[in-house]
Amino acid sequence: MASKALPLHTIVIWQSAGHKALAASRSDFEVGVLVTGAVVLFAYLVAAALMAVVPTRHVLVPHAAFWKAAENRAEMRRRYAVYLGRAFCFTYLFIAAEIVVAIVSQHNRALEVSWLPTVVSLVYVVLLLIYSVWVFADGFRVPRRPSTGAPQRASGGSSPGGRGRA
Predict the structure, then answer these.
(1) Is residue 28 assigned to a domain?
(2) Domain around 126
(3) Are 106 and 6 in contact (CB under 8 A)?
(4) Theoretical Cys-Cys bridge with 88: which of 38, 44, 78, 132, CB 3.0 to 4.6 Å?
């Protein structure tokens, strides 16, 4: 796709409208994107491996007394794996958005602005921070368990479904 969509020389950074600050050949740009993707994948694999071998006592988690109990450790590690996977998915989406900005700005003079990649980067950072706050505020909320000693609701019938016998 990039081989057909990108011109021979791709402007990676715009200094100002119409003036390039950094340009790369099409193949350099493709190799750079592949290397970036490989680095992100390697970071994910290292983080996943560390999550598997790090002792639970060293893991930072809200409501530690609940999540570090022996019966809840597997669920805690599963949730961390899911949230870590989603964060790296956001990272790949960010890389894809930056590639789209680079491709579109080659063909559209209105997008030859230096602030557009910066805005995409800031949106990524803000969304990742919001996601991190959500993970630690709500993602590890202690699940509610129904109480077994709760009195049954008084209703017209005497059977457990709330319906009387006819």
Answers:
(1) yes
(2) 2-139
(3) yes
(4) 44
- The span from the CA of 41 to the CA of 116, in Å, is 26
Alpha helices, DSSP H, located in 24-72: 26-53, 64-67
SS3 content of the chain, % helix, strand, coil (to 5): 60, 10, 30
Q: How many domains does the chain have?
A: 1
| Burial of 83: CB neighbours in 10 Å, binned 0-12, 13-18, 19+ | middle
CA angle in degrees (0–180, nearest 5) for 47-50-55: 140
